[in-house]
Write a structure and sequence with these properties.
The chain is an alpha/beta fold. 50% of the residues lie in helices and 15% in strands.
């Protein structure tokens, strides 16, 4: 073979070798970039997961702190004709509170509530205190121990709290709770109704109460609930 032919073969071999090396280096570079992108994505995902976990933990801690510091509020009420119920529901709405209705087993009818009738139920119960031990459908509030503040609403009967409320108060432990009475009345004030309930209660930090007329305005109720916050 001539020297010229040998030279051509050598050049071809060198070109093949150089091309192979270049291809190999290109593949390694791509794999390195892919590994880098994958690693970066994984690191980003890990950081995002950690951030989400931290945010969730902070939220949980804040919720726990709010529960511990602010506690929960419950509105308990007895309503004979619906007036106290309307006020209680508005108070609960304003405060974001739970609500519990005191319901007698033998509910009061319109005739029962006719205080002008000497033979009506409320008149007989007023005259004979032994008849005031009114049985309730339930005196048990779910998760009662979770409530730090309890508002108790009732109509005024003969200057005192309607006596079905007495049954509820006597049946529950108010120790460690702030208790705020409120009443609805067409003419009578709160009077000693809150003080008398406190005497019957098992503990509790009883506060000065609030009297509402039979059909108070939303602004009247809001003024009261704003004073509690």
């Amino acid at each position: 073979m001539s020297k010229k032919g040998i030279a051509i073969i050598v050049v071809i071999v060198l070109l093949v070798i150089i091309g192979g090396v270049a291809y190999f280096m290109s593949q390694n570079s791509n794999e390195s970039e892919n590994r880098g992108d994958t690693q970066e994505n994984l690191m980003g995902q890990t950081e995002e997961n950690n951030l989400n976990e931290n945010e969730a933990q902070v939220t949980e801690e804040n919720n726990s702190e709010n529960t511990e510091n602010g506690g929960k509020t419950l509105v308990v009420y007895f309503s004979a004709s619906g007036n106290t119920e309307a006020v209680a529901q508005k108070i609960a709405e304003n405060l974001g509170a739970d609500i519990f209705e005191i319901t007698p087993v033998d509910e009061y009818t319109s005739a029962d509530l006719d205080w002008t009738d000497d033979n009506s139920r409320v008149t007989r119960e007023h005259e004979d205190e032994s008849l005031r031990n009114v049985e309730l459908e339930s005196t048990t509030v779910d998760n009662w121990e979770d409530y730090d503040t309890v508002l108790i609403g009732y109509p005024i009967w003969w200057g005192i709290a309607a006596w079905p409320v007495d049954t509820f108060v006597k049946a529950n432990d108010f120790n460690g709770k702030t208790v705020i009475p409120f009443c609805t009345s067409s003419s009578s004030g709160l009077g000693q109704s809150g003080d008398l309930l406190e005497e019957e209660a098992n503990g509790g930090n009883w506060q000065e109460g609030q009297r509402f007329r039979e059909n108070p305005s939303d602004s009247d109720i809001k003024e009261f609930t704003d004073s509690l916050q």
